[in-house]
């Protein structure tokens, strides 16, 4: 991970000694996200918020535009082909820090990890804003009413005290049914798959 940090910092990103991230992310994608966060915050809080909006917009574009998604996920393109196309698919006026991030990912053969890096960046920006990000994973997308119920249930908890809740729905068919709820350092597994696992474990013990 240290080499990743050096690679990102070499493009003008901030050093850890000048500013600090609000939470520590230990994954590889978290290292990219943290370097990106530090780069923007070193310039100014305004630049950080601007970058956050650009990342949110481009992340949505990856999800909604099949051509952009295919480009991001295409493992057959050379680094030079990917780099030459990056500027054209980013909206005009996007933060140069976003382009730098995507370029570093591309050069390291990890452009397909961009959505995960964005998710880690969003965790950092939520902590920076004093938000508590609540990730609700379900087999199918939840409607607004269901997400509001989760929000209401968590607002009265001690961990949410003094924070603004940000409920994010992620889809993973492998949970089968029910929900996985992750917030702060807590995780609640209400999925059918966990019940199946417990049942299988019980059969094995028998």
From TrEMBL:
Subcellular location field: Membrane
Family stated for the protein in its record: Belongs to the ATPase delta chain family.
Keyword Chaperone appears in the UniProt entry: no
Stated name of the protein: ATP synthase subunit 5, mitochondrial
InterPro entries the UniProt entry points to: ATP_synth_OSCP/delta_N_sf, ATPase_OSCP/dsu
Domain of life per record: Eukaryota
Any matching Pfam family: OSCP
Keywords for this protein: ATP synthesis, Hydrogen ion transport, Ion transport, Membrane, Transport
């Amino acid at each position: 991970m240290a080499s990743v940090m050096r690679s990102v910092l070499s493009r003008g990103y901030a050093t850890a000694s000048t500013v600090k991230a609000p939470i520590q992310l230990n994954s590889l994608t978290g290292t990219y996200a943290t370097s990106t966060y530090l780069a923007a915050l070193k310039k100014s809080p305004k630049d950080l918020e601007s970058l956050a909006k650009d990342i949110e917009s481009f992340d949505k574009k990856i999800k909604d535009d099949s051509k952009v998604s295919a480009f991001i996920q295409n493992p057959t393109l050379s680094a030079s082909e990917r780099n030459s196309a990056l500027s054209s698919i980013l909206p005009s006026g996007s933060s140069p820090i976003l382009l730098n991030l995507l370029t570093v990912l591309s050069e390291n053969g990890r452009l397909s990890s961009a959505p995960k890096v964005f998710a880690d960046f969003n965790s950092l920006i939520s902590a920076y804003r004093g938000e508590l990000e609540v990730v609700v994973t379900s087999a199918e997308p939840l409607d607004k009413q269901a997400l509001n119920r989760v929000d209401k249930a968590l607002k009265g908890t001690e961990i949410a005290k003094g924070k603004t809740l940000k409920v994010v729905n992620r889809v993973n068919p492998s949970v089968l049914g029910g929900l996985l709820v992750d917030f702060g350092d807590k995780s609640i597994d209400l999925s059918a798959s966990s019940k199946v696992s417990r049942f299988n474990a019980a059969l094995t013990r028998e």
